[in-house]
Amino acid sequence: MINLTINRLKVSVEEGTTLLEASRFYGFPIPTLCYDEGLSPYGACRLCVVEIGDEKKAKLVSSCTYPAEEGLRVRTASSRVVGARKMILELLLASCPQSKIIQDLASAHGIRQQRFRQEYEDCILCGLCVRMCEEQMMAKAIGFRGRGENRSIGTPFDIKSEVCRLCGGCIYVCPACQLRCTYTEPENAICGGCENLSPPCLEKERFDNMMCYMDPCVSCEIRKR
To answer: How far apart are CA 54 and CA 43, in angstroms?
Structure first.
């Protein structure tokens, strides 16, 4: 067993366990977009970042790909972590402003308006569809192509795949395919229909780390009333 500390709680996990699995097992929620329990971890969306190490030398890592290490100190909801997630969500909103999943995550993190130019690419390159097709459907009908800003997902040479069974698995896991009918202007990009208040302990800068990990936060629910 490997012994580590998550949010000041000393825990033990089996060797090979990732920080995401360990955190969720002990009740600390971490948002993700490119992770699925039935698929191999990829670490593309970076939304699951956590802070590891001592405060002066602490660094952000993707929890879905980082393995638990002996004596490691992990913080899943520090002000630095939450700030990084908000920035990532704003960038994701610029790519897929009508994605229901991204909108709900943005609303839950207290984002009311994204500041970047909307591109309407309808793909965040999370790789869920590629891994679903290869690992669960055993088809490999689609994959990544190109590099950098030209990177995209499709069939080889844009030719209709002969191994695709039209199962719909790629659409089922895609966060960009789950759209919400709403405005597309930047100032109205976030629906807010399922709005959650952001943690007051971080909002008022009283603490560097989140004090409550309940979902929804009890303090936030009281403030609503």
So the answer is: 23
Task: Report the alpha-carbon distance of residue 79 to residue 133 in Å, rounded.
Answer: 37
Q: Which single residue is written with the structure tokens 């970076």?
A: 46
Cα–Cα distance for residue pair 92/100, rounded to 1 Å: 12
* Dihedral sign (CA 91, 95, 98, 100): negative
Q: How far is the C-alpha of 104 from the C-alpha of 195, rounded, in Å?
A: 7
Query: Domain map of the chain by residue range?
Result: 1-77, 79-124+179-225, 128-173
Domain 128-173 has CATH 3.30.70.20: yes
For residue range 163-206, list pLDDT tens digits in order: 998 898 998 999 888 765 454 555 555 655 555 555 556 665 55
Q: What is the spatial distance between Cα 15 and Cα 131, in angstroms, rounded to a whole number?
A: 24
Q: Measured between alpha carbons, how far is 124 from 172 in angstroms, rounded to an integer?
A: 15
Task: Give yes or no for a contact between 64 and 44, defined as CB atoms under 8 angstroms apart.
Answer: no
